[in-house]
Amino acid sequence: MPMNFTVVCENSLSINLSWISNFNGGDDQSFQVSYSTNEHLTESHKVLETNINDEGYGKSHSYTPTIELQGDLWFRINASNKFGSTTSDVIYCSAVKKVTVSSDNLPIIAGAATGGLIFAGLVILGIVFFLRTMKESKGKKKNLHQSDTILTEERESDEGIYTY
User: Fold this and answer.
1) Are residues 118 and 49 in the same domain?
2) Do both 40 and 90 map to the same domain?
3) DSSP letter string over 90-104?
4) Residues 83, 63 within the same domain
5) What does the alpha-carbon distance between residue 9 and residue 106 come to, in Å, rounded to a whole number?
6) What are the angstrom distances between the C-alpha of 148 and each of 39, 103, 137, 140, 142?
7) Which end of the chain is more exposed for a tag (fewer CB within 10 A), N or C?
8) Among the listed residues 10, 6, 9, 28, the one whose alpha carbon sits nearest the alpha carbon of residue 19
9) For 18-35, what is the mean pLDDT?
10) Which of 95, 110, 130 is the last residue of a domain?
11) What's the whole-model pTM score?
């Protein structure tokens, strides 16, 4: 049975499994690495690697998956030879996808941010212009109304009609 089975999950791209061989003598053995996204590994496990050769009793072994794994994961190691097999304890890890900003994307991000700021500024200027135009338009209507009232009073006074 594999001893000291450990799993280090830094992120979905950096998962490392390690164990020590605990087999002394007899036929050659190999290891199989499997995982599951369900805690019940025996029901729904997926094999990551088969036939990892045993380097010998007490020797350290390690394995890093070549595929990106995400979420809640349960790993196990199976040691087998022609006489049978044994399985390690199941080890849990949570692999979160690592988000990186590539230097290749920096000009795109900077351009998008600048464009967003310019757009926001134009929207604000448009709102200010619209409000100012509406205010001036109301002022002109008020002046026109006052002019009409004065003209009406002058006409009425010329005709001798007075209204109180």
Assistant:
1) no
2) yes
3) PEEEEEPPPP---TT
4) yes
5) 28
6) 85, 68, 17, 12, 10
7) C
8) 6
9) 80
10) 95
11) 0.53
